[in-house]
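My current task is to audit a protein record that another person submitted. What it holds is a sequence and that sequence's fold in token form. Thanks in advance; the entry in question is below.
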Amino acid sequence: MKTYIAKTEEIDEARQWYVVDAENQILGRMASKIAYVLKGKNKPFYSPHQDTGDFVVVVNADKIKVTGNKLTQKIYYTHSRYPGGQKATSLESMLQKNPERVVELAIKRMLPKNALGRKLFGKLKVYAGEDHPHKAQQPQVMNLN
């Protein structure tokens, strides 16, 4: 048996756009399904070393849900690389300030940590409201349930 490797033309022809409504969706479950589509694992010609995934547009990122006590207990850490430069932000304050960033981080951390992962992350578009500028691509509605 020979391993099938998809050609670049085949991948580009099969690439699609999806729109996901994040309203009342649980953050982690939604992020894992979106990462699955970004990687292209939903396609018959998936290869781990190729970018076979689709574009995903997430709307209503400010209306996501989390389970348990994550709103107060989940902490996002950043560091300025200077001594004493660590900052901590709770999920609750992050959702108020920048809800797109919460969804982006959840999905980005589920992608590979290499050049391919950075390329896959570029195909993710997240918006806090319902409007998005990608209507010309005629995205299909992706049902997560």
User: Anything to note?
Assistant: The chain has a mean pLDDT of 95. The CA atoms of residues 76 and 89 lie 5 Å apart. The chain is about 35% helix and 15% strand.
